[in-house]
Input
Amino acid sequence: MKKVLFCGTTNLDYFIYSKLLPVEGVTIKGNFEQNAGGKGANQAVACSKLGNKPFFYTRLSNDMAGRYLYSSLVSDGVKTKAIKIVKNNKSGVALIFVDEKARNLIGIAPGLNEKMPKTEISKALKLLKKNDIVVCEMGIPIDSIKEILRLSKNKQLITIFNPAPVTGKLSKKDFKKVDYITPNEHEAFELTNIKIKNKNNAKKAAKKLKNFGCKNVIITLGESGAYALIDNNEIYINAPKIKAIDTTGAGDAFNGALAFGLSKGLSGKDALKLSILVGSLSTTKKGCQPAMPTLNELIRSKLIKKNEFSKLF
Output
């Protein structure tokens, strides 16, 4: 099994579950929950719960939020050797509203997530060797993403880039260092200026991202599944019919599962199929990290069978 390193954000998530999402000038009532979150951390936990205990590079303070987040990562089996503790600063926090239709509204105070020095990135990547896997998301600074991709290709690592949320632009030189890019339909639009309303639009956007230089392209389509160009093969996979109650961390579950599947030697197509099932099942629970499913939970849900993904067991 290949080693995996996730590079990304960590936030303490404050959830309010209410009938409706808030609008200007209107006060809403709801139920409150607190959980560890952040896109990078969510992805690392998703991978860990499936069975590959990954490394994670992020930045935390020694404040209340940072101590809570660090402890949560340890309890979920994530390796914390690459985490940088910066004392007397602020860890990231997020306020998340979720309505009864599982839609969400999110605000973030990024804190230490806003800066990731090159020296720290280089040190973290030393934990991996040739053909291991590195995953980064776009909540971290754009210069840090470029450095992660540059150093990863120098080390001949497999790179997964989740451009969420889209906060800047990469050059074709940067995109050529991406082995798998995984935008959702909204992020794909921001990257390509192609609105994705159907499979044909997804195909056009995927081809444009390929032309940018990305080796493989996966566009996630929510409850409609995903469209992909993997090893120059066109793939469309439907999502299972699931009663969602909270979609907040579904994309993170998808990316964590993709890294896990590839680390276990699954083909790109099978890793994609697994990722869709993991992302879908994660929406049946509240929160992000607490909702990330294990392989046993996937089996109990009857979404997969052991003989279907034999390399995982």
